[in-house]
Amino acid sequence: MMEVCASDASDGTAVDGTVDLKHDDPDVIEAALALDDGPLRMRGGKGGFGSMLRAQGGRLSSQKTTNLEACRDSIVDNVVFKLPLLAMIRAAFIVAVIIPCVFAISQVSIDGFQVQSTFAALPVDEVPLLPEIWEVLGPFAVGARELGVDPLSAYGGFEAIPYSETDKYPSELADEGFVKWMRVETNADQTVGPVVFPNVRWDFNQDPFGWTSLHHAIYFRGQFHIPKSGVYLTSFESVVSYKIDDRAFVGNVYNYDHASSSAIYLEEGSHTVFVCSIMDVRLFGGFLPPKIKFSGSFVPVSLDTPNRGIIVFEEDSIIPEMIGGDLITRYLSLTVLNANVTTIVTADIAPFAEDPIQNEQSGWVQILDVRAEASDGTPITASISVLFSLKLAPGQIYPLPIELELGQRADPDAPISISLYLDLFDLDTMEPFSVTAGHYDLKMRQWGDVYKLTFLDYDSIVHYTMARPPLKPCSTPGNHECPVVLALHGAGVEASSEFWTDAYRRQEFAWTVFPTGRTPWGFDWHGPSFKNVDSALLTVSHLHGVPEELAPGLSINLNKLVYTGHSNGGQGAWWMTSHHPDRALAAIPASGYLKIQFYTPYYMRVGDAHADPVFRGLMESSIAENDVDMYAANMAGIPILARTGGNDDNVPPLNTRRIVRLVNEWNRDPNSISLSEVPGQGHWFAGVVNDDELQKFLDDHLDPAKNPGLPLPQLPEAFTISTLNPGSTGSKGGIKILQLEVPYRLATIRVHRNGNHWMLNTTNVRRFGFMKDDRANINSWSIDGMTFPDAPKVGPSYLRKEGETEWKLTRDLLWISQERYSSTYGPASQILNHPFLIVIPSQPTVVRMELYRRAARYIASSWYLYGRGGTQIVRDVDVLGGIAAKYHLIVLGGPLDNQYTRRRESEGGAALRKFPVPYTRWLKLTLFNPVKFLDSGGVQIDRKKYEADGTGFLFLAPSPTRTLLGLFVAGVDELGFRRALWTIPFRTGLMVPDYMVVGDEYGDPATGWTAGDGSPFGGAGTKGAGGVFAAGYWSNLWEYDPRCGYTK
Q: Quick check: helix, strand or coil at residue 135?
């Protein structure tokens, strides 16, 4: 037992309360968190909604009720241990908390997750801990979601600058404009921070500049000791990334509950860890002063066990539920990590010709099969739900999709659990082995409860949605089907939490669906999150779990949706209403922001000082497709009740008021949509999404007696369709824009209806089409002054080529295989919207093999962390036509290293010579034309060549079938490759167009530091957006276009 007492943060004096800190006390963390953390001044309660509630003691996801779970969450803010010395504190903490955790982990837990593996139970002097002392430099200004900026690169870079008691460095955040080094101790609970900066007046800075003035970076470095050589699982929370020695890893910046560990082999002795902690108001809140804390851990892994380093994170599993003794859905997911990273560590120092890895499969494991047993003896079978050979590279994490078949149960109401076992094959020793993958209870539901449905998402990875059925039948054969209230959660909220599902009333005549968006933060309901929503709706429409006799009255219409949600989900409701208006029956966005640039303003981005204003606009176009205000015209005619709290200091009501104003202007009616602003209420309050006012609005549109037939809203006599990217925008009034004249410039079609004659006027539209819409009864129409006497054709597209004045009907779909269309329009983040593989070189000559393998593991880990996605790592020689026709590809290395890149490049000139001249232009644009690789290892875009040391590049290019994408990531050298690698946008709000070329004036994005010291001629080190050499969007014909591209 250890006595602790809370300390007031303002003066350090003890406040009342003594806690018995017993390592086996499951309530110790709750008691500690209940202690006062000192006075906080909060001007604008920013931060993800889930994070905000957790900070207030709320719990939105899994309950942490055991000692093993407390091992992860033993975070005690401002606790003063009644011991005289820090060393005694740390020693006591090891005895009381760390050692029990390690011994527990050796059995069933790691990183707070139940796992099936054997971890080393170490004596007290062999437990790896964070550095006792950190050398810290900061704070430095940084913009929201800003890449490539490092203020210290001008002075040699953080890793090279020696610690000094006297040296100081410029920072506009501090009084007198300079900051100095300091030393910070790791807290007794193995957290670091918050760091206090006496010379920074955060409130004074915020008064004129707002929340964005709180964004900053703090650099940390420290030495830690590894007592025994071996494999360790390392994880750092609340940081974007971190480095151990020379190796960079993705951090768990969102503090996700799912696994974020990376496997690393560490030699016995001293090592250095580097952390750049980024304060992001959206993530960590608008506290004054800002309180950034991060934590980290190193957990030893024993490979000399029957599991052979295979780790299954049990609490990461997605498990189906049951109704009436039957599985509601059959899919489940097990997260598997291959920790066998020792076989490749020596490649770091080996020359290319003497790569010590003689066996290319060294450390790889193949997953052969899965077996299941039911606790009550019920027959059960399990199978892996993919059609290809599953292999895990050393260090790779993968959420394994599994399909179950459960036989007839003797007692359908009795509790049941299942045990799972994996059969694997060691590709190093060529031996089979098996792993116990865990034991899982199947939750029993009653009809009428909200229940879980699991499904294969668009990337064949298992996800889930929650659903609540209607109280009454709402589907009439031949008349109408049940609509859906689509409830989108806020940032940090788990869709399955009762807090969220209980926030909405059960509707009489509509299903309520609670999708996940793939993770609690997801992608702001864009991109992969939106595709997840579609998959969830389709799954619910199959009526899994519905009693057979009730099914006819509960069928679902997937195109009659009420978009609703709160906070980030409110933004998602605005986004879906504005981007897919023809599916909207109505909308109730609550407390939603209109775009990320309003939620965490971008106007203080450091790199903007070095960037051409035109270029800044081009970069912002890569995220502007998600600006709800730009798409407000698309919401005209849709019934909307917008809800906000009058005192909301998280998403201020100005966001909601502005959207309401814009939509009413487009409707030419000041009261066409309603604003429900509740005086005195904040971001979340009782009834925010389900009070009587909102329910009356829902009844008006969902009750067949009040809205017979549930028709979609009538189209206004005049309306406008707007888009910046056809790939993320649906139709309005049955009209869909398919191509833009200049990609990523705003395109509009203004429609004026005169009875059954429609008049269309376009801006920046190259191709569009008509879709079936019962509201669009068109007998004749005109476009840009050109008249068509007959009704428009549904299905074919209408095209006006550049330089021509006439619109022409094109009946064939051949253009999809020749030009860019919705699924290939970009930007770079589009690569995540379809199943993808990672292609690594088999015989590199420029970048070391081990660096490519690390890069592949980083991509796989990032995709799992941010999207709970899974991918496979394949060699260049194994990428044949079938693979490229089915998957997007992330290809690592230029043609000097990667044979697939070389093959795609060579398909150009050689193929062109086989065809007559008239076909040459067509072939050019369908092959690998946008980027020309140079013998130097550099690239040429248009007439500009980029081949200096440290140059990296990534770009989208068409697949061989031209219907899918490849994202090529390469560099002139290893430094350039790393720069390009860390530019891949795995989070929302990152500005990465179709292509980017970066060099010595661009830092390693996301890591917060450069691998060098910036340009010796630039004078300002790395410059963020100002350090980008070239960026932009390819034309519709996959060519460079100066109207949407920029080259230096």
A: strand
Q: Which residue matches tokens 């030009």?
A: 819
Q: Which residues contact 596 (CB under 8 A, 6 or more apart)?
A: 144, 145, 282, 524, 623, 626, 988, 989
Tell me the two tokens of residue 448. Answer: 């009428």
C-beta separation of 582 from 497 below 8 A: no
Please count the CA atoms within 13 angstroms of the CA of 719 that sit on its side-chain side.
23
**Would you give the DSSP letter of residue 7?**
B
Q: Which of 551, 42, 511 is nearest to 290 (CA)?
A: 42
Q: Please, are residues 332 and 462 in contact by the beta-carbon 8 Å criterion?
A: yes
- Exposed e or buried b for every residue in 930-958, given b needs 16+ CB within 10 A? bbebeeebbbebeeeebbeebbbbbbbbb
Q: Is 87 exposed, middle or buried (0-12, 13-18, 19+ CB in 10 A)?
A: exposed
Q: How far apart are CA 339 and CA 115, in angstroms?
A: 13
- Dihedral over alpha carbons 584, 587, 866, 279 (to 10 degrees): 150
CA 798 to chain centre: 36
Copy the structure tokens of residue 85: 């010395």
φ, ψ of residue 318 in degrees (nearest 5): -110, 115
pLDDT digits 0-9 by tens, 369-395: 999 999 999 999 999 988 778 999 999
Residue 155 token pair? 């002075």
CA-CA distance, 329 to 323, in Å (whole number)?
Answer: 10
- How far is residue 142's CA from residue 117's CA, in Å, rounded to a whole number? 41
Reported as a single tens digit per residue, the pLDDT across 877-891 is: 999 878 888 999 999
- From the number of C-beta atoms within 10 Å of its C-beta (0-12, 13-18, 19+), residue 390 rates as middle
Residue 581's SS3 state is helix
Q: How confident is the model at residue 283 (pLDDT cuts 50, 70, 90)?
A: confident
Q: What is the largest CA-CA distance in the chain?
A: 91
Amino acid letter for position 435: V
CA 961, CA 424: separation in Å to the nearest integer? 34
Q: What is the pLDDT of residues 30-40, one digit of tens each?
A: 333 232 333 32
C-alpha dist (Å) from residue 692 to 88, 409, 505, 689, 920: 58, 44, 10, 10, 65
Say which residue the tokens 């940390």 belong to.
220
Q: Which DSSP category does 643 fall into?
A: E
Of 720, 735, 527, nearest in space to 622 by CA = 527
Which whole-number Å values give the CA distances from 7 to 1, 15, 35, 1022, in the listed order? Answer: 19, 6, 9, 41
DSSP label of 94: I
3-state secondary structure of 130: coil
The pair of structure tokens assigned to 1034 is 């390819």
Closest to 48 in 3D by CA, of 34, 58, 33 = 58
pLDDT tens per residue across span 695-753:
999 999 999 999 999 999 999 999 999 999 999 999 999 999 999 999 999 999 999 99
Q: Is the peptide bond before 162 cis (omega within 30 degrees of 0)?
A: no
Q: How far apart are CA 661 and CA 646, in angstroms?
A: 16
Q: Which residues contact 648 (CB under 8 A, 6 or more apart)?
A: 591, 681, 682, 683
Distances (CA, A) of 215 to 280, 473, 986: 5, 51, 20
Q: For Cα atoms 1031, 1033, 1035, give the angle at the middle one, nearest 5 degrees.
A: 140
Dihedral (CA of 447, 452, 454, 455) sign: positive
- In degrees rounded to 5, what are phi and psi of residue 458? -60, -20
Neighbours of 101 (CB within 10 A): 23
Prior bond of 916 cis (ω within 30°): no
945 forms beta bridges with 940
**CA–centroid distance for 772 within its chain:** 34
Length of the chain: 1048
CB 105 within 8 A of CB 98: no
- Cα distance between the two ends of the chain: 65
Q: How many CA atoms lie within 13 A of 832 on its CB side?
A: 28
- Output b/e per residue, 526-547; b: 16+ Cβ within 10 A: bbbbbbbbebbbebbbebbbbe
